[in-house]
Amino acid sequence: MTHGIDTDFLVAVEIRDHPFHREADALLQSLLGDGHDLALVPQTLAEFIHIVTDGKKIPQPLTMAEAISRAEHWWQAVEVVRVFPDGPAVRDFFVWLTRYQLGRKRLLDTMVAASFQSAGVKRILTNNGRDFKALGDFEILSFRP
Q1: 64, 49 Cβ separation under 8 angstroms
Q2: Using one digit for the tens of pLDDT, what is the confidence trace for 17-65?
Q3: Residue 84 Ramachandran class (φ > 0 left, ψ -120 to 50 alpha, else beta)
Q4: Please, what sign has the CA dihedral across residues 120, 122, 128, 133?
Q5: Which of 40, 58, 62, 81 has CA atoms 20 to 30 A from the CA of 51?
Q6: Percentage of the chain exceeding pLDDT 70
Q7: Distance between CA 28 and CA 34 in Å, rounded?
Q8: Which residue(s) pair with 37 in the sheet?
Q9: Cα–Cα distance, 15 to 95 (Å, whole number)
């Protein structure tokens, strides 16, 4: 089964002093050990780079070069399925924004969810399940202790 990666999961896996690093890494190793694939959208990688280089969000931020290198590693990983927004995803994005009256702070998660849904990805690795709850028919796998 393919599991979509939300940015908070990617940050927790990559930042060793993140409060949920151990749990996220254990979940990642378990999924890979069981032969599961992971799905990534480009928007997640952009948000990842933005967060891990921000000294206000990360006590020891990565340099841009380090963040880009880690993001590229994930994008190139054999276990990763690359997901892009297609026509149906963009249609769902607009429908969900309108139907649920979502504001500008929900744009990225809504496009990520629409892209995953269009690609048939039904599980999302995130501690922010509420961001995806009303959108699509997703199973949320949390890594919070």
Answers
A1: yes
A2: 999 999 999 999 999 999 999 999 999 999 999 999 999 999 999 999 9
A3: beta
A4: positive
A5: 81
A6: 100
A7: 10
A8: 2
A9: 35
User: Three-state SS string across the chain, please?
Assistant: CEEEECHHHHHHHHCCCCCCHHHHHHHHHHHHHCCCEEEECHHHHHHHHHHHCCCCCCCCCCCHHHHHHHHHHHHHCCCEEECCCCHHHHHHHHHHHHHCCCCHHHHHHHHHHHHHHHCCCCEEECCCHHHCCCCCCCEEECCCC
Q: Token match 């202790």: residue? A: 145
**Interatomic CA distance for residues 5 and 12, integer angstroms:** 11
Instruction: Provide the token pair at 8.
Output: 């908070």
Res 137: pLDDT: 87
- Which domains are present in the chain? 2-141 (3.40.50.1010)
Residue 38: name the closest of 1, 78, 10, 80 by CA: 80
**The length of the chain, given as a count of residues:** 145
